[in-house]
Specification:
It comes from Syntrophotalea acetylenica (Pelobacter acetylenicus). This protein has 12 helices and 17 strands. With 439 residues, it is of the alpha/beta class. It has 3 domains: 160 residues, Rossmann fold, CATH 3.40.50; 182 residues, Rossmann fold (3-Layer(aba) Sandwich); 79 residues, K homology (KH) domain (GMP Synthetase, Chain A, domain 3), CATH 3.30.300. The chain has a 6-stranded mixed sheet, with helices on both faces. A 6-stranded mixed sheet has the order 8-9-7-10-11-12, sandwiched between helices. The protein has a 3-stranded mixed sheet with strand order 15-16-17. Helix 11 packs across helix 12. The chain is globular, with a radius of gyration of 25 Å.
Amino acid sequence: MSVVAIVGRPNVGKSTLFNRILGTRRAIVEDFPGVTRDRNYARITRYGTPFVLIDTGGFEPASEDHLLAQMREQSRLAIEEADVILFVVDARQGLTPSDEDVAAMLRRSEKPVLYVVNKVDGFSQEAAAGEFFALGGDRLFSVSAEHGRGMDDLIEALLEALPASAKNDALAEDETRLAVIGRPNVGKSSLINRMIGAERLVANPTAGTTRDSIDTPFAYNKKRYVLIDTAGIRRKGRVQEKLEKYSVIQSLKAMERAHVVLVVLDAEEGVTDQDLTVAGYALERGRAVILVVNKWDLVEKDQGTMKKFTENVRRAFKFLPFAPIVFVSALSGQRVSKIMGEVERVSVEFNRQVPTSALNKVLEEAVISHAPPMVQGKRLKFYYMTQTGVRPPSFVVFGNHAAGVHFSYERYLANKLREAFGFNGCPIRLTFRNRGGRE
């Protein structure tokens, strides 16, 4: 998936532009510089061509202020990750030396740059925008991110500038891609080396050794797989200057390309909030998930240790009750061989297709066992169900009041599908539509 970075000096309207492209108010917007200090990112799907959009803190090339230096480093990281850059300047303030410094740096990146002159709310700003041609762009996009003025032309140019996707599921239906995801220093690279039996990746006890996603093709039981190692995902506030260049975007892009996600946990540290966040990313993207508890050899054990740890994991990952749990040691190789067995089983479920007749039998029995609730004085009715896709298994249920289906009843139907057909290790997507087709 392509990445688009929004960069520019503080207070030129980058976050407002981010929100305008996203279509919702997600980035904090205030009328003073420095509000956005870290990279903010979102997956954009509303234009037909999905891409990841990064909002960054203001870029002040010459400032020695520590906070501004951190913000500058965040912008540099975003530029490194980006396929296309939106360089935002302020029509009201006019061209500044800092704008020229940023433009020079972007030219050195040799990446496509769209020059966006923001805060053009009328003819006077439009006339003054021409001075920004001095930055070297052959086209300027005069916009008002706050009011939406000029956005259609900018979006059209942005979509044209996006590179063709390098990966396509349709081109590799016979291979299964595994993304190895987790916090820094949980042993992801060591685990991959142990799984494929070679020192393919640099493994180092220093957190953050891996900075890019690395693909490793291999075969298992005469089937093709690709292991994707990723940089550790760490809270954005922990990413500091040149010391820690962990790329959240690279990990999210790895999930986009993956079919199965191995979420690696540290047995010594237990489950952390960041582990839950990482797993949540995988669930949001509809990926099959396996929870891999690494460094199990370092835990003091008795007869009930694994059972107790499993209960704690299940309680913490209550949104992933279907995910298998594997306890391993990448260092010693203990139980690592069990991972691929789980991957094979989960892959079968991820691609499972169920006949419509069998689905509707389960739907009928589910409704008889637990009738849908009343909505606006009328009983919800479901007429039939059909499967619309795999990876993940996706279903549409047709009824008389799609908007009235409560999430608890949706969860009930999903559980009934699991009881009947399995789908272990992967999410189920249910969509409800009125019989006329409206969701």
